[in-house]
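To: structure desk
From: M.T.
Subject: fold request, one chain
Message: Could you run this one when you get a chance? Sequence is below, nothing fancy, just the single chain.
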Amino acid sequence: MHDVILTKPAAPVRLPRFKRKGRQPDGFPAGPAPRYPGQFIREMARNPLGPMLAMHNEYGDIVHYKIGPQHLYLFNDPDLIRDVLVTNQKNFTKSRGLERARRLLGNGLLTSEGDFHLRQRRLVQPAFHRQRVASYATTMTAYADRTRSAWKDGTTVDMHVEMMRLTLAIVAKTLFDADVDDEAAEIGEALTAAFESFNFGILPFTELLEKLPLPHVRRFNAARDRLDRTVYRIIDERRASNDDRGDLLSMLLMATDTEGDGKGMSDTQLRDEALTIFLAGHETTANALTWTWYLLSQHPEVEARLHSEIDTALNGREPEFDDLPALSYTRMVLSESMRLYPPAWAIGRRAIEPFEARGYTIPARSVVLMSQYITHRDPRFFPDPERFDPERWTPEAQAARPKFSYFPFGGGTRVCIGEQFAWMEGILLIATLAQRWKMRLSPGHTVDIQPLITLRPKHGMKMELYRR
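Reply: Done. Structure tokens follow.
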């Protein structure tokens, strides 16, 4: 009975209707106009992927629209995306979305700019060097083994909650040598509350509304305070012990500003960097794994091949770092999962100076949006794009596509610093958990996407567990 699957597609994104603009005599690319005042703001707050998909479907690779006085451009072509993220990256800063994320993350790696960002990245980088990342493998598989050993045959779990708890424990242990198991549920609730305010936070006039005692403002502030308690506790405990444990937190505590006053980081700086990596290091991987289990449950032929590779490569033992080359199909499965459901679903940049794109002059201060979710589904690069097909990730297939047709970790100097950490963790966790278990979507469970800071499953992911 376990292998009988009724395919359940994820609910499609609702596409709003806009008024079509006529000719653009002012030199702007084609784009939509709202059908009524405030439509863009309303649709973006409801689900920003809907309007972005609708614009791409109607206008193609470069779209122009306005929200109030702000010019926005949606780029949907790999060459345009490369120009922003790599070729002309010095002409761009983070856009409003991540500017607003400073309310949660402070001035950490994800939100900082300029020389300060480069200095902080140099301080953090050693924790993600290849040799250091390889040393994390044993912890990853040990925590995954603990998770799979606690599961019971035939029971139902929320796989998103399970993956959030697992990846949270791993990033806390590997990078901060901390145990957060007792706080995992509260941290998860705080994250959800903080992230749910994100779409609201990128809209105009948010700075004024945040000063009012509105329910969503109170929820966000309470969530931020809860996350701060965990991070400051970890920092305080480490300062008190004065131990050098060779992890990321030790590196940050010992770091001094050789280009400035020669002092170490303040608690606020430590908090911003630690919280950024703490959250980014588990939220994105948890989402990628959740969507992977969902897709495998809907494609038994892919799952069977995955199981065969794991059984052959590991012969019943836990995976290790040296097994990664033998788990090539497992990596292909994860790659395809992140194509369809990229954890980071969009990137925004603000232009410092005017620049040229396809014969148009993009004014200074304009915001450029690039969506992994949209580009990863472009049939020019991924025929039959809604189909889950790990064979798209053979070396030959990858070489035939433009590089920025697929960019789950961004690109350029601001590419995700933990990319190799995430790849290794994803592959090892899939191999460890799938070695013993099959997951099946619970009957009647609604699968829908929720594009917050990351691409979450809106209703969680209720799945039944069956021992292999």
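Reply (cont.): Residues 1-7 have pLDDT under 50 and may be disordered. Let me know if you need anything else for the meeting.
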